[in-house]
Amino acid sequence: MTQPTTRTTFKDYCKRKLGWPVVELNIDDDQVEDCIDDGLQFFQEYHFDATEVTYLKHQITGSTLKLASSPTGAFSNGELFTGGTSGVRATVHAYHSANTTLRYKDPKVKSGGDGNTYYANTTTTFSTGETLTGSTSGATATTHASTATAFGDYDKKYVTIAESIIGIRRVIPFYDNFGSSSMFSVKYQFALNELYRLGSGLATYEISQQHLRMIDEMFTGRTLFRYNRHADRLYLEISWGSDVDIDDWIVVECDQILDPATYSDVWSDLFLKKYSTALIKKQWGQNLIKFEGLQLPGGITLNGRQMYDDATAELERIEEEMQVKYELPVDFSVG
User: Fold this and answer.
1) Rounded-to-integer distance, Cα 300 and Cα 244, Å
2) pTM of the model
3) Is the pLDDT of residue 4 over 60?
């Protein structure tokens, strides 16, 4: 038989290792599927061959409003506009006439204090069917009668990450608005002056490079972030609008699961085959425990407990093997 390359052939392989079709397996097909899912999850959590380092690029999105029709007049990019019913005020980013969509950011609403001050509030949305009025252009438009506001990354202050991403290593650093190559940038001028200190020789060059990296750390630094794989949200601790604006791109270095549907060679992994087979064996023994000691015709006695205990010991041995052979070492912070 060839190596399994699909979920179906993988399932048949595991069943054959347990004696099927010569031996009848007392286990439901759904239970087999559950064991394969558990095996895949353990494999993806710990095995170094189950993930790959990738660079995820994402374009920051703005919040959108769908309009009932084209505006009367023309909204200016960057101007404030206010909803006549909701009282929400926001900043125009761009108007797209093709699909009658108004892109905006920084929604605010009057609340507290003297009742005249606007405070940031992304939980208050524009009302459907209300009239929007531009503060500078005087343009007006009516929001769609049924479509609600769609908040973008800029106003949510986080980026939605795909389920296949299980870890974020770092966010590629942002730079100041002038750009790191601008001669008017403080960072550029500081680094330029330091170049005159570069001497000859490999050791001097390496020390100088470390010094320049220290300068980069002082003026740019690393982008701070928060991420939890179960929430699938990447929160960026940055100055929104200064470090990053709508339509800007961010690049994230992350660990991504190898999808078996795309990379069929995953199904032939030696560890995954052994571990999933042991899980199925344990479930088979679990099913037979209720018949422990049952006498069958011909003097045969069922012993599901022994099968369960054997599978449990086998799983413990395989998991220990994972820690020794296949799991990547823990990263330690040295400083």
Assistant:
1) 72
2) 0.80
3) yes
